[in-house]
Amino acid sequence: MLYNDEMRRDILSRLSGYRLKHTLGCEKAARELARKYGADEEKCAFAMLLHDITKNFSQEEQLNLCKKYGIIPNDVEKTEWKMLHGKTAAAIAADVYHAPADVTHAIAYHTTGCANMTLLDKIVYMADYIEENRSFDGVKTARKLAARNLDKAMLYGLDASLRDLVHRGKLIHVDTVLARNWLMNNM
Length: 187
Ligand code: FE
Ligand code: FE
Prior knowledge:
Layout: H1 5-13, H2 17-37, H3 41-51, H4 59-69, H5 75-79, H6 85-95, H7 101-108, H8 119-130, H9 139-148, H10 150-167, H11 174-185
The protein binds fe (iii) ion (FE) (2 copies).
């Protein structure tokens, strides 16, 4: 068994405010996408419950977790250390909640995307992007696309993220570039 009600309550008790609301929104969105696209609904929901479990941690806490779990931040992650929350959440999901490898992979790459994304990876990425509490420009288009074609929705989300990063003068993570290129060559 992946997780039970008690574990779900334990995970949720570590979250509060917007982060809790967002996580519950993600859980719901991921279940919907899993049913639509024939993915393992419980794995999708479990990944969503844990995906932002370290999101509110400080830089010091993130770096301590990296040390503990042997995560080596790359140059972009050293500057944009908040990006590390995917990888540190994945490590906690495995260590504390015994999440299987496909679930921890989806958690690790929910922020950046990556090449060769599985259906589970894509659903976790998209559910995070379109869950009901999101309100950015373009979220309605992303929701419509996600209901019709998951790959088109992914490309829409990755393109929008890349444009936003350029617009804000931010560093771009190599995995986001790899995700977009791979998707364009495989859809
Ligand atoms: Fe996140
Ligand atoms: Fe999130």
